[in-house]
Amino acid sequence: MNYGGGWPAVAYTLRKAVEAGGVRKLWRAMRSRNTCKTCAVGMGGQSGGMVNEAGHFPEVCKKSLQAMVADMQAAIPDDFWKRHPVSRLKSLTPRELEQCGRLVAPVRLRKGANNYEPVTWQEALDSIADTLAATPADESFWYFSGRSSNEAGFLLQLFARLYGTNNVNNCSYYCHQASGVGLSSVTGSGTATVVLDDLEKADLVFLIGGNPASNHPRLMRSLMEVRRRGGNVIVVNPIRETGLERFAVPSDPRSLFFGSDIASLFVQPDIGGDLAFLYGVMKRLVEIEAADKAFLNANCTGWEELSGALASMSWDDIIRRSGVARQEIVRVADLYASSDRAIFAWTMGITHHRHGVENVQAIANLALMRGMVGAPGCGLMPIRGHSNVQGVGSVGVTPRLKGAILKNLETQYGLKLPETEGMDTMACMEAAAEGRLSFGFCLGGNLYGSNPDLTFASRALGSLGTMVYVSTTLNTGHAYGTAHDTFILPVLARDEEPQPTTQESMFNFVRMSDGGAARLVGPRSEVEVIGEIASRTLARLALQTGDISWESLRDTAGIRQMIASIVPGFGDMKDIDNTRREFQIDGRTFHAPRFATTDGRARLHVHTPPLREIVDDSLIRMMTIRSEGQFNTVVYEEADAYRGVSTRDVILMHPLDLLRFNLVDGDRVTVRGPAGVLKRIRATAFDRIKAGNAAMYYPEANILVDRTVDPQSRTPAFKDVVVSISTPATASA
Ligand SMILES: Nc1nc2c(c(=O)[nH]1)N[C@H]1C(S)=C(S)[C@@H](COP(=O)(O)OP(=O)(O)OC[C@H]3O[C@@H](n4cnc5c(=O)[nH]c(N)nc54)[C@H](O)[C@@H]3O)O[C@H]1N2
Ligand SMILES: Nc1nc2c(c(=O)[nH]1)N[C@H]1C(S)=C(S)[C@@H](COP(=O)(O)OP(=O)(O)OC[C@H]3O[C@@H](n4cnc5c(=O)[nH]c(N)nc54)[C@H](O)[C@@H]3O)O[C@H]1N2
Ligand SMILES: [Mo]
Predict the structure, then answer these.
(1) CB 89 within 8 Å of CB 480
(2) Are both 225 and 295 inside the same structural domain?
(3) Hey, how many other C-beta atoms are within 10 angstroms of the C-beta on 618?
(4) What is the rounded CA–CA span in Å between residue 601 and residue 594?
(5) Which of 393, 460, 690, 691 is the most exposed place for a label (fewest CB within 10 A)?
(6) 10 Å Cβ neighbour count for 119?
(7) Which of the listed residues 322, 625, 630, 697 should we mutate to test ligand 1's pocket, taking the one with most ligand atoms within 8 A of CB?
(8) Count of structural domains within the chain
(9) Predicted local distance difference test score (pLDDT) of residue 733
(10) Closest ligand 2 atom to 103 CA
(11) Does one domain contain both 392 and 378?
(12) pLDDT band at residue 283 using 50, 70 and 90 as cut-offs
């Protein structure tokens, strides 16, 4: 069977169960009432594990099993640290690091030492508080990954502000920030305009720049159902991803045995050619008089400018800049013109570009042109990454606090909080490299490994006086992202927390996790660790904390009360501890064309699609992508079964490009990017990619990627890296 999902996924589940100590044990863990740990499609919570927002069960995916099994590992023994100097940790692969086991003791890498050494919680917490008390607040930064709870996220950002800095940011700045900025500039709200139920009603789904077959497998059921209802799925991607053509949904018997069609139409633009392609579809809609002028005039601003721009754009230019033929654009426009309810979904292929925000705005233009935002069954749907990345953003993990949250905090609690802009993630890394920061704190994630320009990232973090990592397992950041003094504090995973926590899905649905028994002795809850550091530091500095009862925030229920009264749309959180009722956040999904902008109208935007040609023949445009067998910087499997590739040290190229570079499949080449070089990379024939484009795996390829960011969202252009390819022969010639 050469399509995605299916029996291989089922077999994998059983193999993982054995690793976890038995099918029953893994099943119980997967069914506990906790939100799924991996992506933000959102599962579990109070309905029990593997149940989605529409009540479908069982919704399993490979990476959620991987994550669970990783958390079910044994502890890293104390003598591990003696046997593993940092130089040895550096030689381990991301998977080997993850498989060292669970972190259970706080460890410290002192200035000049070669090894981390276990320290007591008391020593770790006191030293961190001492350092903070001696550091000017704006010399610190606070990075959050998206796996932590709303409660931990809220508490830590609140502490950072009380401490005195707005250098607060989350992994979204390397992920979906362009979606947030783009959507806010259109509808006044930075998240999806739809709920899962809308997806179940749509008759057309655009899937642009994403590979949910491997990264959001649970969405595949919804896409399969669109097709079963007679609807269409249009995929826009430079790679014809196997699982997006046909997929076997493991929880659906018919699909499991026979497979299901996913894409009705597969459009292959050049990398970054989406903007021109979208303008092509818009132009064609005008030509066939399919634009809904009544909707545009009644509910949008900017139609005159946009229609003017469309009229003056030439087809030649659109075709050249997109890499898509005119007939194909016509077919897409025809399908769209005949749809009654279309949903536009996108992922990193859209946001990881220097014109990421423009991409998102153009998708919104296309949707608005047919009145497909602000009615049931249609709308805009960024497919989020981490399971609670949207939640931590909602509860205040942003550089400058959103106006309403800041005002509520100040008026309800008598606080005076910093009003500086605060720095985004890349700005913090650059400030660290320039010696302008001295203290870093990472609540989860792998800030080093997720960065572009790894050489720079290591140098930046290495310039800090102190770095504190709050983590569950080891990753490359603990080896390469060390400062003069480095701490790793071990924490409990979501399903081991002593108290309930909450998470928010990409559909703006807030779930509650019950937590559960700790699997190991040693790790503490994130909220406890943050609370301890905060109370010690605030006491040392004798800082005023207004009317906040720091005591009540030891309890996640107390934090929820505060979130309920501070964060717009979270009012229903007030009763959640009594009712256990999970809820939809108010004011974000639009089922009528009245938007959250000041005048209630949606805004259209006009852009100039970028040129894609590369003049120099020795260069090719390369995107960095994931395989199914990894979760971000943690690589579980070498092979990429979906793409039929057995190792990760490859550059995937179309056979025509291999010819152009005078290569044969499997040749070892040197790949030079703007930030670094990788040697002995296998040039690999891959006819599913559009000729003229190449792909390599993240995070290994991050050594090549430079720090170019989208000026509007500050998201790195991870998908648009121009590289040169040479062989020893060409290099010496
Ligand atoms: N198994 C697994 N699941 C995951 C993750 C994981 O690492 N592993 N990570 C999670 C996270 S944090 C995130 S953000 C999501 C990421 O999910 P995705 O965005 O789906 O992942 P990527 O592999 O980064 O990129 C996806 C696709 O973008 C396409 N692409 C690249 N450049 C372009 C372009 O210019 N235009 C278009 N149209 N397409 C392009 C690539 O061909 C690829 O198919 O997945 C989440 N889920
Ligand atoms: N070249 C390139 N670079 C990219 C991307 C790309 O497509 N190409 N994608 C970008 C994207 S979309 C993202 S989101 C970032 C990823 O950025 P991050 O979120 O920073 O990185 P992860 O690899 O997801 O972090 C994994 C680590 O989180 C820790 N962890 C796991 N669970 C928990 C928990 O419950 N609590 C705590 N405290 N820690 C936990 C573990 O120690 C694990 O090693 O990378 C970005 N970088
Ligand atoms: Mo992400």
Answers:
(1) no
(2) yes
(3) 13
(4) 6
(5) 691
(6) 16
(7) 625
(8) 3
(9) 45
(10) 42
(11) no
(12) very high
